[in-house]
Structures are given as C-alpha cells and as structure tokens.
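[Q] Does anyone have a clean structure-token version of this?
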Amino acid sequence: MQLPIHVIDAFTSERFKGNQAAVIPLDAWLADSTLQAIAAENNLSETSFLVWSADRAAFEIRWFSPLTEIAFCGHATLASAFVLFEADPALRSITFWAAAVGNVTATQEGGGRIVMTFPRRDAKPLDEVPAALREGLTPAPTAYLVNQQAYVAVYAAEADVLAVKPDLERLKSLGPLDVVVTAPADAGASYDFVSRYFWPANGGEEDPVTGSIHAALAPYWAGRLDKNRLIGHQASRRTGTLFCEVTDASVEVAGHCARYLTGTITV
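[A] Here you go.
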C-alpha cells in the first residue's frame, strides 16, 4: 500500500525552523499498530493521520509521536490544515475532530496565517508539588501549576527559562504529564511570553514548538499581563512563534507553515 506523506515545518514561515510534522491523509483508519509504526519510522515530533467523516462533517485526526499516541497536538493540526488548504485554495475553514478535545476549527487568513480555535485548558495551582518535578528543573521556578496535559513551571524572567536544565529521567517519571517552563518576555521583545516544553515520557527530550499547551499558557499570561491578544515564543533550538487570542471559552492559536517534503510511503 502506498500513502501520500507531507512533512511541514509548523509555527514558522522559515523552512528548518518551527516544529516538523508529518501529515498522512487516509481513506480509512489503519490498525493502531501500523499508525504507531509509521510514526516511529518518521521519527518526528508528531505524525498526524486524517480521515474524512461525513457523519461529523469533519476530518477525524489522530496524532502519534515516535513513542505513543498523543491526546492533543497543536503543531500537527496546523500542519494538517496547511496541507488541506494548499490542496484546495478555495477552502477557507476546516473542522477537525479528536476524541480528547472535540471539534477544532482552522481558518485561513491573508498572508498564509492559519488560526486554530482550541478549547481553553487552564492550568491551576498545584496543591502538592511532586518531588520529581521539584528536583527535575534547575533553576527552581517561582510557581507550579498543572492542567490535563502538563505541569507548568513559572519563572520570573526569560533568561531563567533559557537557562533551565531538565533532569529528563526525573521528569519522565511524571508521565503521562509533560512539563512546560514559561516566563514573561524581556522588555522590548516582539513577543509577550516564552516557553520550553519537555516530554520524555511521551515523545522525546524537548519539543520544538507545542501549540496545544498554549491553550493553558495563553490564558495564564492573559491574566498576568492583562491583555487577551498575545504572542508566544517557544525558545527551543528551532524556535517558533504563536499568535494567541483568549476568550471566555476558547483560545485561538495561529501560525504559519513552510513545506519541507512531499512524497509517498510504502506500508
């Protein structure tokens, strides 16, 4: 069986930056073991698989890291929308459906920017901080929060986030939750807050750009900075830019993409 594959750099307009995602449209779902084997073979942060559902009037979407299926992935959704919009230039809006988050819409704006609407997934203060979290981050943060996806470690300054050295073995023991570190941007920066994301239990060491966690980070910084429109900068080696808008019920997360590869795989 031959399947089309697209590799897209997401949350960037520059090739070789942002986060890579493989996008594989399917006519029908393959066995879970086959989907996982393909994702492991691709060895990218995420491989997304799409199947059109007439009943839902939406593309069912599933995301796999090289290690496991992921409940919610932003950058691979952005990459999937980019592929579909590129295939049909007249298309302006797409609905995806995933079991963990329900419907996610993607809308194409001028200039190639794609806006995704996520449900808010606010992080709450931790009642008790796990020892592995305290011991797994150096330097220590000023506050700890958690949502259904990750622990959120808040730092006072951007330099602190850049200086974080994770103990990945300790953080791995926190699975299935991942860990994101975040801080306000330096004065005069072109963005409002920074983050880095570690996910040794689910995908690898440091994720280049993590759209999904901005469903928690954007509401947090909207409250801290008293503004509903924010720009996030993920300070990984590849870096990424995320344009966020927070409402009472949702978080819009927008970005650009650059195509890297168009090809065919044999399964």
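[Q] Thanks! Anything notable?
[A] The longest strand covers residues 257-266.
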